[in-house]
Amino acid sequence: MKKLFQEFTKGIHRENPIFALALGLCPTLAISTSVKTGLGMGLAATFVLIGSNVIISAIRNGIPHKIRIPCFIVIIATFVTIVELVMQAYFPPLSKQLGIFVPLIVVNCIIMCRAEGFAAKNPPTRSLFDALGMGAGFTLGLVLISAIREAIGSGRLFGYILFKGYQPALTLALAPGALLVLGLLLGLSNLIFKRK
Predict the structure, then answer these.
(1) In the chain, where are the structural domains located?
(2) What tens digit of pLDDT does each residue of 35-76 get?
(3) What is the distance between the alpha carbons of residues 52 and 75, in angstroms, rounded to a whole number?
(4) What residues does 5 pair with on adjacent strands?
(5) Exposed / middle / buried, residue 164 (Cβ in 10 Å: 0-12, 13-18, 19+)
(6) 3-class DSSP state of 25
(7) Nearest CA-CA partner of 34 in 188, 147, 117, 125
């Protein structure tokens, strides 16, 4: 049980996809304009991670080595299709805001990295906890970046005004603001975890 807990927690801090491994930065920078979109993308990627990791891990010995990557992509694409259809049916505004970034989860380097580097080499239980941890770490990173950008860049959080009379720093709501916030959080993360 202790090893499973370690598999989960490594994705949150030591191997966080955004702050430690610097993976998945394209959707991170593009959709982190509001907490709703950050949370939506994080949950979508987590669902795909969990489903694909468990299935790939369960059938890993039956997949010929030469065609493993195409097989992984088909499995991942199946879960992405499920997420996309559910979002379109039940969360149309969120689906519209995330746009092309939901279908692009298929080739997201976090998902492919965990499939090739972990799920293909470990049993389903460990792969499940790895996926949960990586998904939680990715979601946490997206929400943190989104919250900072939304709060400082627009003076709102979840669409609600934080302070009356606040003059937002519009730069943070734009693309350069995403890079600035990400860079500062990467530096802070390195500072905190390198000392420990």
Answers:
(1) 2-195
(2) 999 999 999 999 999 999 999 999 999 999 899 999 999 999
(3) 6
(4) none
(5) exposed
(6) helix
(7) 147
